[in-house]
Structures are given as structure tokens and as C-alpha cells.
Amino acid sequence: MGHRIFLAGASGAIGRRLVPQLVAAGHGVTATTRQAAKAEDIRALGADPVVVDVFDASGLRAAVLAAKPEIVIHQLTDLPAGLDPSKMAEAIARNARIRDEGTRNLVEAAKAAGAKRLIAQSIAWAYAPGPEPHDETDPLDSGAEGGRAVSVGGVIALEKHVLGASPIAGIVLRYGHLYGPGTGAAAASDPAVHVDAAANAALLAVERGTQGAFNVAEPNGHITTDKAVAELGWRAGFRLAE
Q1: Residue 82, pLDDT score
Q2: Which ranges constitute the DSSP H helices of 36-180?
Q3: Could you report the per-residue pLDDT of 73-96, keeping only the tens digit for each?
Q4: DSSP 180
């Protein structure tokens, strides 16, 4: 039986690969974008589009309440096309704001709507230096400096908001570096994950997995993904049929 799902960030790299998977699984999806021009693209994928900015707390709350979701999925980012190095410094700051303020707004809206589960995108390269491979119990790099401090600080805030969203069950997906359609990359450095497999982890988390964090990446020496494989039934080799 399908669920009512509110997907924040449907026009991003993962969102565009996630909507078809959610729809095919029988879920009813309300999906957001900040740009009205992208609404019809979302509708064509089978979701009901809503144009809203995550920093507009009252507008976001109204959109989530109207959707009446059982499950909220957070795939919001603000990154330049192809991860353009000349634009990444500003993007890191914008992303950190989304992860902190945006996530806080989304959690409050989800609570108001009575959602039962919140699934959020995080990253798998924010661990503090230490023995590898890292599992999900290892600490994040709260002592980072420079641009990494901004990025990791945003991740720490996001995970705190999501995992502390009781009575909502919070699940954090710590993705490796994305590659594949819509990412601007044909391959990625370790830890890496194909965008289709990353999206599939979010689909699996709709029904499976208890509260907590899950590393989501292809086999590598930096992090272990045993938990996602065992609890979510996740497979790194998953690909959408083209």
C-alpha cells in the first residue's frame, strides 16, 4: 500500500531519479521546486509539483500541511552545475544554510503535518580523522577548519535536526560523491555512489530501517556500508532502466 510522501528538492540530481521510483512503487508524491519553470518537469515524472522556498517557513508549512504526508524526504541542495569550482565557495555557504535553517523549517512543518518518518540527505565524507573504514558510530569532524568547517557544520546541524525530530523517526542517508545522470560526473572519487543507487536508498528507507544514519556508497576503504545493505536491503549496483 502506497504512502503520501512530501519530497523536498525534486528537481535536484537525486530528486529527479527518485520521483519515478516512488511513483512506480505506488506512492503518492508531492514534490517541491523553487523554480516555477521546473514544475511541469516534475508533473511529467508523476508527482504533484509545488513551488516553495525552504527558507519561507510559513509557505513551507502550508505546503506540507496541504500534502498531508506520512513521510517527508529531504533532498534539498544548492550546488552549481557540474560542481563548478569557481562557484563552490559560495555554494558551500548556501548548502550549509539549507542544511541548518532549511532542515529546521522542514522538520517543524513535518511535525505540524503529523508525518511519521523523515528521510534526509547527508554526506559520507564528513567523518573526523581516525581509523578507516568509518562506520555510522564514528564521530563527525566537528574540529574541521576553513571551507570544510562550514560544510561539516551544516551536516552536523542537519543530522541533529533530523535525528532529534521526535516523535518523527529520522533517517539520515550519508551519500558518497555522486556520479551519473544529472550530476555532471561520469565517475567520482571514493566514497562514490551512482545517483540512481543513491535515490534507491531513499525509496528503501520509506519502508525499512530504524532511526539513525546509514552510509550509502560503493565498496571502498573509507566507509563501510554494511548497515545499509543489511537493514535497508540496499544494492550499490542498482540502476534505473532507461
Answers
A1: 55
A2: 39-44, 57-67, 88-97, 103-113, 146-163
A3: 999 987 655 555 655 566 788 889
A4: B
